[in-house]
Specification:
4-stranded mixed sheet; 11 strands; 45% helix
Length: 471
Amino acid sequence: MKNLFKLILAAILLLCLAPMPYGYFQLVRLLSTIAFGLMAFQYYKEGKEKLAYTFGALMLLFQPLYKISLGRTVWNVIDVIVAIGLIILFFWEWKRGENIEKNRPPVIPNQPLKADNIDDNRVEFKLEGKLAPKELIYVASEEDKELSDMFEANPEVFEGWGKMIGFQIVYLPLLMKKLADKNVLRYRAPYLSETELANTTIGNNFLLQYLENPSDRARIKHGFIRTEDIHRGSDGKDKAINRFYPLSSKSTEPIADQLHKIGKQISFEKNEHERLLEAKERSWDEWGDAVDSEADAHFNSQIDNENTDDLIEEVKIKIAMLRQRGISQYLLEQLIHPDDRLSRLVITKDFRLLLPDYNDMEIKMEPLSKAVYLLFLNHPEGILFKYLPDYREELAKIYNRLKPTGLTDRAIQSIEDVTNPLLNSINEKCARIRGAFVGQFDDHIAKHYYIDGHRGEAKKIDLPRDLVIWE
C-alpha cells in the first residue's frame, strides 16, 4: 500500500500538464514536499542512501516556502521526469517484493522454523560482539563444570566436530593459554610483563557484555554463538545478529546428540539465510577515486583506518600469522584491548632504536629508512612532501652519521630519489618504517611511532617528544 502512494503522486504530478487552477499547483508543492521528505527518511533508515539523497533533493526542489522560478515549461519537464521515475520505482519494488516472497521458505505462524522443534535463537549484540563467519564461540552466563572439564581435557572432540560442520570452535579460557604461548598477547600489548602475561585470563561470559539487551543474558546459560548477519538498529548503529545454540551436560540428551542437532540447525539456518540474501537488492557500486601521479597522492595513510596494502609483504605475512593462530582478528581485538600506554623511544649513540618500556624492544631498519625516520623525528611539526628537496642536505648528514664510511654515488642517488616528491621512493620508505613497528606490535599503539598524515598535509611522527630520548 505504501508503494501505491508513488503511483498516486505520479498521477498528481502528471495532472500539472493540464490547465489547472493556481491553487492546485500550490497543493502539489505541499504534498510533494511531505511525500519526498517521508520517502527520503524511509530510504535512509533502510540504508539506501542514494535514494534517500535523491528524494531529499526533490523535497528541497518542490518545497513551497522559497519558490524556485524555472518557468512553466521547465517545471512540466521536471514533473514528467519525476512521475516516470516514481512509476519505474514502484514497479521495480513491487517485482522485487514478489521475488522475495517467492523465494522465502514457508513458515507456519507461531511455529518454530524447524521441524524438530528448535525455537528461534536470534540474539542481538552490539557490533563489538561480531564474530568471524566460521567461528563458534562457547559462551556461558553460569558454570557447567562437566562441560568445562570436557573442553579442557578433550578439546579435540569439539574441534573435530567443528571441522565437520565447517567451523572453528573457540573455548575462551583455553584460548588465552594458547595465545600466551604464541606471543599474540605480546603483539597486542607489548608493555605486559611476563608475570602479567601469565596471569591474563578470561571467562566464558566475556562476550555477553556486548548483548544489546542485557535481559537476553537469562536465555544464554551455556552454549555456542555464531554471527549470522549485521543490520542497522533503530538507533542508527549497526548490530550483530548472533545465533545461540544451547549445550548442557544436564540435558537428557547426550552431548553427541546435542552437537548433531546443532550442526543440523546451523546447516538449515545458513541455507535459509543464503536464499534471503539472493533475493535482496545488490549494493550500488562506488566510484573509485582518481589516481594522481605525485608521491603525496600515493601516500597510504593509516589515519581513519585507510587500507594497509603498501605494507611490505614480509610484514603482512608476519601479522597475519600472529592474528590467525587459532583465532580471528575480530575476536582477538575484542579479547585484548591495548591501551595507549606508550613507551619511551631511545636513540642510542650508535643510533639503535629502543623501546625500554616494551621489554627493551629494538626496532630495526635499513640505513636509509632509519635516516628518513630520524629526519622526521627531528621535525615534530611535520614535513610536506612537496618540500622534501629542502631537507635533502639534512638527510644526507643524518645518513652519513649512520654510515660513517662516507656517501657512495649510489647512496647519494638514493637520497635524491627519496627527497624527490615526484617519485614513489618516499612512500616506500614510509611503508618500511611503518612495517618495522607494526611487525612488532599492534597498530593501535604503533600508529604513534611511524610517519603518518592525511594526503595533502604535513606528514609527521605523532609520538610526544618528551618520550624521545637521544643518548
